[in-house]
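Appendix B, example 12.
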Amino acid sequence: MIDDRPEPPVKVVVLEDEELVRSGVRMILDADPGIEVVAEGGDGDVAVDLVARHRPHVVLTDIQMPRVDGLEVTRRLLATPHPPVVAVLTTFDLDEYVHAALRAGAAGFLLKDTPPRELARAVHVLARGEAMLSPRVTKRLLSTFSAGDAAEAARRRLRLLTDREREVAAAVARGLTNAEIAADLFLSASTVKVHIGRIMAKLEAANRTQVAIIAHDARLA
C-alpha cells in the first residue's frame, strides 16, 4: 500500500533583532506550504531554549545581534545533543563573522536580500542536510580560507579519502547537490549520500560546508 500522506513541513526558528526583517523572513517562509516557522526571537540568547521547546529542523540566525550573536548561537546549538541545521543571515557578503560561523559548523550562509523563492528553497536544501551558500559570494568566501598553512593541512586530511571520495568532495565544494553529484559521477543518489557520510567522518567535518572549506583549502576545487 502506497503512503500518499504529505511530508511534514520543515520546522524553522528565525533569530533576527530587526523586527521588520524578521517579519519579512517569516512571511516569505510561511508562504511555502512545506515550511512552518515554529518560533522567532530578537536575540541569540533565546536560541537554545527555543530549539529545546520547538525542535526545529533549521535555525536561521542573524550574524550580528545585540547580546548573543550568530557565531555564539551556532556554537551553542551545535553543542546540544540533537542540534538543528544552522544557517546565518547577513547583510554583508564577506562579513568576518560569517567565516567564523562556517568554521564553527554553520551549514548555510544567506544574504538578507536573497529573493523569496530562493530563501524558501534554501530552507528545504538545508533540511536535507546539504550546504547552502549564496551563489554570488561562495567562490570569494571560500577562497579566503585558502591561505598560509591551511592548504597543506587540508591536503594531509584529504589523503584519508579514496579517489572516489575525493571526487565527491570536490563536487561538494563546487556547490553541487546530491542529485547533481550523482548525475555528474554516474552514481546513485543513495551512493552519493553514503560517500558524503564517510567523507565527513574521515575529515571530522560537522557538515558539507566544512567539507567544502577543506576541499577549497587543498585547491581540490
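The chain has a mean pLDDT of 83. The two ends are 45 Å apart (CA to CA).
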